[in-house]
Amino acid sequence: MKKSNLKIVVVSSKGGVGKSTISMQLVAPFLYEQSNKEPVSFYEFDDENSDCLSYGDSKLTKRKIMEVSSPILREELTELFAKDEAACIDIGGNKTTTIVLDALNESGMIHFVDLVIIPLLDGEQDGINAVVVYSILKDMRPDLKFVFVLNRAKNHRYIEYQFDNFFGDVRGIFQNNNSVKNCVFDNHDDNYIVMLDDDIIKYSRRFGLTIYEIAHHNQDFIALLKLNMSTFSHEQEIKLISFKNYIKKASDTYYEDVLKLGFDKLKSILESTHDN
User: Fold this and answer.
1) Which residue of 109, 151, 237, 270 has the smallest Cβ count within 10 Å?
2) Tens digits of residue pLDDT in 38-81
3) Is 109 inside any structural domain?
Protein backbone atom coordinates (compact mmCIF):
# COMPACT_ATOMS: atom_id res chain seq x y z
CA MET A 1 0.00 0.00 0.00
CA LYS A 2 2.32 2.72 1.41
CA LYS A 3 0.30 5.64 0.13
CA SER A 4 1.63 8.92 1.47
CA ASN A 5 -1.50 11.02 0.84
CA LEU A 6 -4.13 8.95 2.64
CA LYS A 7 -7.30 10.78 3.67
CA ILE A 8 -8.99 9.25 6.73
CA VAL A 9 -12.29 10.61 8.07
CA VAL A 10 -13.32 10.15 11.71
CA VAL A 11 -17.03 10.75 12.20
CA SER A 12 -19.96 10.08 14.50
CA SER A 13 -23.19 12.01 14.84
CA LYS A 14 -23.09 11.42 18.60
CA GLY A 15 -20.98 13.67 20.77
CA GLY A 16 -18.65 12.43 23.48
CA VAL A 17 -17.59 9.16 21.84
CA GLY A 18 -13.92 10.14 21.63
CA LYS A 19 -13.56 11.27 18.02
CA SER A 20 -10.69 13.62 18.78
CA THR A 21 -8.98 11.06 20.99
CA ILE A 22 -9.19 8.44 18.23
CA SER A 23 -8.05 11.00 15.66
CA MET A 24 -4.98 12.16 17.57
CA GLN A 25 -4.00 8.98 19.44
CA LEU A 26 -4.63 6.39 16.70
CA VAL A 27 -5.09 7.96 13.26
CA ALA A 28 -2.47 10.73 13.43
CA PRO A 29 0.43 8.42 14.44
CA PHE A 30 -0.69 5.81 11.89
CA LEU A 31 -0.64 8.39 9.09
CA TYR A 32 2.67 9.71 10.43
CA GLU A 33 4.23 6.27 10.01
CA GLN A 34 2.67 5.83 6.57
CA SER A 35 4.08 9.22 5.52
CA ASN A 36 7.69 8.30 6.35
CA LYS A 37 7.38 10.12 9.66
CA GLU A 38 6.54 13.47 8.15
CA PRO A 39 3.97 15.63 10.01
CA VAL A 40 0.46 15.04 8.69
CA SER A 41 -2.42 17.47 8.30
CA PHE A 42 -5.21 17.43 10.85
CA TYR A 43 -8.50 19.17 10.03
CA GLU A 44 -11.11 19.56 12.75
CA PHE A 45 -14.63 20.42 11.59
CA ASP A 46 -16.41 21.48 14.75
CA ASP A 47 -17.91 24.88 15.57
CA GLU A 48 -18.44 23.92 19.23
CA ASN A 49 -15.15 22.34 20.31
CA SER A 50 -11.49 22.51 19.30
CA ASP A 51 -10.22 19.37 21.01
CA CYS A 52 -7.13 19.00 18.83
CA LEU A 53 -5.68 22.11 20.49
CA SER A 54 -5.22 20.04 23.66
CA TYR A 55 -2.28 18.36 21.90
CA GLY A 56 -0.45 21.65 21.54
CA ASP A 57 3.07 20.20 21.85
CA SER A 58 2.52 17.33 19.42
CA LYS A 59 4.84 17.32 16.42
CA LEU A 60 2.90 14.62 14.53
CA THR A 61 0.36 16.94 12.97
CA LYS A 62 -0.21 20.33 11.40
CA ARG A 63 -3.56 21.25 12.95
CA LYS A 64 -6.24 23.49 11.47
CA ILE A 65 -9.72 24.33 12.75
CA MET A 66 -12.23 24.47 9.89
CA GLU A 67 -15.36 26.64 9.93
CA VAL A 68 -18.37 24.37 9.45
CA SER A 69 -20.71 27.25 8.64
CA SER A 70 -18.42 28.50 5.87
CA PRO A 71 -20.41 29.49 2.73
CA ILE A 72 -17.65 27.92 0.63
CA LEU A 73 -17.39 24.64 2.55
CA ARG A 74 -17.64 22.52 -0.62
CA GLU A 75 -14.81 24.48 -2.24
CA GLU A 76 -12.68 24.19 0.90
CA LEU A 77 -13.19 20.42 1.01
CA THR A 78 -12.23 20.15 -2.67
CA GLU A 79 -9.05 22.11 -1.99
CA LEU A 80 -8.29 19.93 1.04
CA PHE A 81 -8.59 16.67 -0.90
CA ALA A 82 -6.62 18.02 -3.86
CA LYS A 83 -3.54 18.49 -1.68
CA ASP A 84 -0.85 15.85 -1.96
CA GLU A 85 -0.72 15.20 1.77
CA ALA A 86 -1.81 12.68 4.36
CA ALA A 87 -4.72 14.03 6.38
CA CYS A 88 -6.98 13.13 9.26
CA ILE A 89 -10.40 14.78 9.01
CA ASP A 90 -12.17 14.94 12.36
CA ILE A 91 -15.88 15.72 11.94
CA GLY A 92 -17.86 16.89 14.95
CA GLY A 93 -21.22 15.50 16.02
CA ASN A 94 -24.84 16.64 15.83
CA LYS A 95 -25.58 19.18 13.04
CA THR A 96 -21.91 19.35 12.06
CA THR A 97 -22.04 15.71 10.92
CA THR A 98 -24.91 16.35 8.52
CA ILE A 99 -23.45 19.59 7.13
CA VAL A 100 -19.98 18.19 6.44
CA LEU A 101 -21.15 14.83 5.07
CA ASP A 102 -23.57 16.61 2.71
CA ALA A 103 -20.73 18.87 1.54
CA LEU A 104 -18.47 15.85 0.98
CA ASN A 105 -21.18 14.26 -1.15
CA GLU A 106 -22.14 17.40 -3.08
CA SER A 107 -18.51 18.24 -3.86
CA GLY A 108 -17.75 14.66 -4.96
CA MET A 109 -14.91 14.45 -2.43
CA ILE A 110 -16.59 11.46 -0.77
CA HIS A 111 -15.06 9.42 -3.61
CA PHE A 112 -11.55 10.38 -2.52
CA VAL A 113 -11.91 9.29 1.11
CA ASP A 114 -9.63 6.31 1.72
CA LEU A 115 -11.24 5.18 4.98
CA VAL A 116 -13.98 6.18 7.39
CA ILE A 117 -13.60 5.50 11.11
CA ILE A 118 -16.74 5.43 13.27
CA PRO A 119 -16.03 5.52 17.01
CA LEU A 120 -18.60 4.31 19.52
CA LEU A 121 -18.94 3.58 23.21
CA ASP A 122 -20.85 0.62 24.64
CA GLY A 123 -24.27 2.26 24.98
CA GLU A 124 -27.34 1.45 22.90
CA GLN A 125 -27.56 4.93 21.38
CA ASP A 126 -23.93 4.70 20.28
CA GLY A 127 -24.76 1.60 18.26
CA ILE A 128 -27.82 3.23 16.70
CA ASN A 129 -25.87 6.35 15.71
CA ALA A 130 -23.01 4.27 14.30
CA VAL A 131 -25.42 2.39 12.04
CA VAL A 132 -27.12 5.61 10.90
CA VAL A 133 -23.80 7.25 9.92
CA TYR A 134 -22.61 4.04 8.26
CA SER A 135 -25.84 3.74 6.22
CA ILE A 136 -25.76 7.38 5.11
CA LEU A 137 -22.19 7.06 3.87
CA LYS A 138 -22.82 3.70 2.19
CA ASP A 139 -25.70 5.29 0.27
CA MET A 140 -23.34 8.03 -0.89
CA ARG A 141 -20.60 5.61 -1.88
CA PRO A 142 -21.20 1.83 -1.66
CA ASP A 143 -17.51 0.86 -1.94
CA LEU A 144 -16.36 3.13 0.88
CA LYS A 145 -14.10 1.39 3.41
CA PHE A 146 -15.02 1.48 7.10
CA VAL A 147 -13.68 0.49 10.47
CA PHE A 148 -15.46 0.86 13.80
CA VAL A 149 -13.48 1.79 16.91
CA LEU A 150 -14.79 0.41 20.19
CA ASN A 151 -13.63 3.17 22.49
CA ARG A 152 -12.95 3.06 26.24
CA ALA A 153 -13.02 -0.72 26.31
CA LYS A 154 -12.33 -2.30 29.70
CA ASN A 155 -10.24 -5.15 28.32
CA HIS A 156 -9.76 -7.30 25.23
CA ARG A 157 -10.97 -10.53 26.80
CA TYR A 158 -14.59 -9.55 27.45
CA ILE A 159 -15.07 -7.09 24.62
CA GLU A 160 -18.14 -8.93 23.25
CA TYR A 161 -19.91 -8.62 26.59
CA GLN A 162 -19.17 -4.92 27.08
CA PHE A 163 -20.07 -4.02 23.48
CA ASP A 164 -23.09 -6.26 23.00
CA ASN A 165 -24.79 -3.41 21.12
CA PHE A 166 -22.05 -3.85 18.55
CA PHE A 167 -21.61 -7.64 18.45
CA GLY A 168 -25.07 -8.82 19.48
CA ASP A 169 -25.93 -10.55 22.73
CA VAL A 170 -23.42 -13.37 23.28
CA ARG A 171 -25.44 -14.52 26.31
CA GLY A 172 -28.33 -15.54 24.08
CA ILE A 173 -30.90 -13.63 26.11
CA PHE A 174 -31.82 -10.66 23.93
CA GLN A 175 -32.56 -10.18 20.22
CA ASN A 176 -29.54 -9.41 18.05
CA ASN A 177 -31.44 -7.74 15.22
CA ASN A 178 -30.30 -4.22 16.08
CA SER A 179 -26.63 -4.94 16.75
CA VAL A 180 -24.21 -2.98 14.59
CA LYS A 181 -22.69 -6.10 13.03
CA ASN A 182 -26.14 -7.24 11.89
CA CYS A 183 -26.70 -3.93 10.13
CA VAL A 184 -23.47 -3.51 8.18
CA PHE A 185 -23.09 -4.70 4.61
CA ASP A 186 -19.35 -5.20 4.45
CA ASN A 187 -18.06 -8.72 4.10
CA HIS A 188 -15.56 -8.21 6.91
CA ASP A 189 -16.70 -9.62 10.25
CA ASP A 190 -13.72 -8.19 12.11
CA ASN A 191 -13.65 -4.60 10.87
CA TYR A 192 -13.27 -3.10 14.32
CA ILE A 193 -10.44 -1.80 16.50
CA VAL A 194 -10.42 -1.90 20.29
CA MET A 195 -9.16 1.19 22.13
CA LEU A 196 -8.66 0.29 25.77
CA ASP A 197 -9.53 2.82 28.43
CA ASP A 198 -6.42 3.91 30.30
CA ASP A 199 -5.29 6.87 32.39
CA ILE A 200 -2.38 7.34 30.01
CA ILE A 201 -4.81 8.82 27.45
CA LYS A 202 -5.74 11.55 29.92
CA TYR A 203 -2.19 12.18 31.12
CA SER A 204 -0.61 12.29 27.67
CA ARG A 205 -3.16 14.91 26.70
CA ARG A 206 -2.23 16.99 29.76
CA PHE A 207 1.36 16.96 28.57
CA GLY A 208 0.08 18.13 25.17
CA LEU A 209 1.43 15.00 23.46
CA THR A 210 0.20 11.72 22.00
CA ILE A 211 0.88 8.33 23.58
CA TYR A 212 2.83 7.42 20.44
CA GLU A 213 5.22 10.34 20.92
CA ILE A 214 5.80 9.58 24.59
CA ALA A 215 6.43 5.91 23.81
CA HIS A 216 9.06 6.93 21.25
CA HIS A 217 10.73 9.40 23.62
CA ASN A 218 14.17 8.10 24.60
CA GLN A 219 14.93 10.10 27.74
CA ASP A 220 16.23 8.03 30.67
CA PHE A 221 14.07 9.17 33.58
CA ILE A 222 15.65 6.69 36.00
CA ALA A 223 19.04 8.29 35.41
CA LEU A 224 17.47 11.68 36.03
CA LEU A 225 15.90 10.40 39.23
CA LYS A 226 19.22 9.06 40.47
CA LEU A 227 20.91 12.37 39.68
CA ASN A 228 18.27 14.42 41.47
CA MET A 229 18.14 12.10 44.47
CA SER A 230 21.92 12.18 44.88
CA THR A 231 22.03 15.98 44.73
CA PHE A 232 18.97 16.42 47.00
CA SER A 233 17.07 18.42 44.42
CA HIS A 234 13.66 19.88 45.13
CA GLU A 235 11.08 17.28 46.19
CA GLN A 236 8.54 18.48 43.61
CA GLU A 237 11.06 18.00 40.81
CA ILE A 238 11.73 14.43 41.95
CA LYS A 239 7.98 13.73 42.00
CA LEU A 240 7.61 15.11 38.48
CA ILE A 241 10.46 12.98 37.11
CA SER A 242 9.04 9.90 38.83
CA PHE A 243 5.64 10.59 37.31
CA LYS A 244 7.15 11.09 33.86
CA ASN A 245 8.87 7.71 34.23
CA TYR A 246 5.47 6.14 34.97
CA ILE A 247 3.94 7.90 31.96
CA LYS A 248 6.74 6.63 29.71
CA LYS A 249 6.30 3.02 30.92
CA ALA A 250 2.51 3.20 30.55
CA SER A 251 2.85 4.69 27.05
CA ASP A 252 5.25 1.91 26.01
CA THR A 253 2.72 -0.69 27.13
CA TYR A 254 -0.24 1.03 25.46
CA TYR A 255 1.67 1.40 22.21
CA GLU A 256 2.59 -2.30 22.15
CA ASP A 257 -0.76 -3.69 23.36
CA VAL A 258 -3.23 -1.33 21.68
CA LEU A 259 -1.87 1.10 19.10
CA LYS A 260 0.24 -1.36 17.11
CA LEU A 261 -2.76 -3.68 16.83
CA GLY A 262 -4.82 -0.73 15.61
CA PHE A 263 -2.18 0.21 13.04
CA ASP A 264 -2.16 -3.36 11.71
CA LYS A 265 -5.95 -3.36 11.38
CA LEU A 266 -5.97 -0.02 9.55
CA LYS A 267 -3.36 -1.30 7.10
CA SER A 268 -5.30 -4.53 6.57
CA ILE A 269 -8.56 -2.73 5.76
CA LEU A 270 -6.88 -0.17 3.51
CA GLU A 271 -5.17 -2.97 1.57
CA SER A 272 -8.32 -5.09 1.29
CA THR A 273 -10.56 -5.23 -1.77
CA HIS A 274 -14.35 -5.25 -1.65
CA ASP A 275 -16.36 -8.18 -2.88
CA ASN A 276 -19.68 -6.34 -2.95
Assistant:
1) 237
2) 999 999 998 766 666 678 889 999 999 999 988 999 999 999 99
3) yes
Task: Indicate the number of domains in the chain.
Answer: 1
The parent domain of residue 11 ranges over: 7-203+250-271
Sheet holding 115-120: strands in order across? Answer: 61-66, 40-45, 87-91, 7-11, 115-120, 146-153, 192-196
Give the whole-angstrom CA distance, residue 4 versus residue 120.
28
Task: Answer yes or no: is 195 within a domain.
Answer: yes
Model pTM? Answer: 0.90
What is the SS3 assignment for 4? Answer: coil
Residue 149 identity (one-letter amino acid): V
Closest by Cα among 189, 212, 199, 207 to 265:
189
Residues 237-264: tens digit of each pLDDT: 778 888 888 889 999 999 999 999 999 9
Residue 188 lies in a domain: yes
Q: Report whether pLDDT(275) > 60.
A: no
Q: If DSSP codes are grouped into helix, strand and coil, which group holds residue 154?
A: coil
